[in-house]
User: Fold DNA-binding LacI/PurR family transcriptional regulator from Kaistia hirudinis.
Amino acid sequence: MNERPRGRRATIKDVAKAAGVSAMTVSNVLNGRMQFVSVATKKRVEREIERLGYRRQANARNLRVAEQRSIGMVIVDEQPAFLADFFTCQVVAGLANVLNGADFTLTVQGMPGAALAQSMIMRNFEVGGFCAMISGAAEARRESVQQLLELDQPVVLFQEKMELPGADFCVVRQDDRGAGRLVGDHLLARRVGDFLAVVPAQHWPAIEERLGGIGESIAAAGGEARLTVIESASESFADVQDAVARHLAHAPLPGAIIGGNDPIATAAMLYLFDHDIRVPEDVRVVGFNGFEAHRYARPRLTTVVSSAYALGEQAGRAMLKRLETGAFERPEFVLPVHFDAGATT
Assistant:
C-alpha cells in the first residue's frame, strides 16, 4: 500500500487510496452520509483515517459539529399512534426540553421492530447520538439495540435492564420491579389472594419488570396468593374490556385487577361498574404510571407514580455529558417511583 510523501499532511485522496475507495466515499464517511456507505466500508475508512493521521481543517470540523447538534429518538412500537401513549409523550418531552436548553434538536421516528433497519433515521442520520425506547420480545429488543450500536454512535436506552460491557451505551430506567413489589405488598396486606394482571399483547420491558416485582412480593409472603396474567390485543379501551370480559366469562372474580398502566386499569374498572361489580368492595383495582388523567377516575385510582418526564431529562443530561467528555458517566441510571394509594383498593 502506497504511503504519502514523508512530511506532507494526509489528504482525503491519501485516505481513499489506502482504503481502496473513492474520495467521495471518504467524504461521505466524514460527513455522516451513511446511506451511501456500508458498515464494513465505514470501518475500513476510519481505520485508514486513524493510521494516516488525517485531520480535517478546523472550519470543516466546526461545520460537522454544527450538523451533529441533534439527537435521534427511536421508538420501536407496533402501534401507528405511538406518540399517543402517555408514558412515551412524557419521556420525549423531558428529553426534548433538556436538549433544547443546550441548543440541540430532537429528531423522532417511530416504527415497528421489523422496519428499524431500513428506517430513514438509521439510513440517513445526521445526529450526535441515539435515544431509544424499544418494545418486543427480549431477543428482538436486544437485536434492535445491536443495530443501533453498529452505527458507532452513543446510545441511551430507556426502560431496559441490559448490560453491554465496552459498548458506547447507557440505560435510563425507573424501578419498575420495585413498583411491582409495592403493588403486591399493598394488596397482600389487604388479604387479596387472587391477582389478575391485564397487560398489552405487545411486550414492553417495564411491564415485564412490574409483573416480576408482583411475583417476588407473592413469593416473599409465602407464595399462597395466585397471579394470573391475561393479554389485551392492544391498550385501547375496547380491547381491554374485551379481554376482561372473555376471562371473566369462565373464571371467578379475582380479588384485584392490576392494569399494566392506568388506562388499562381504568378500562377494566369501568367494565366492572357496567356489570354491577363494586370497586373496591368486590374487586380492588390498581394501575401504573400515575399521570394526571388517573385523578379523573371515580373512585380515584390507586397507582404507582412514574418518573417518565424525569427519565427523559436524565437521558438528555447523560447524552450531553457523553458528547462533551467522550464517555458516559455511568452505565445505568435508575429513578425511583412512589406508591399513590387511591380509593380503589
Observations:
- The two ends are 75 Å apart (CA to CA).
- Residues 308-325 form the longest helix (18 residues).
- The chain has a mean pLDDT of 88.
- The CA atoms of residues 65 and 128 lie 8 Å apart.
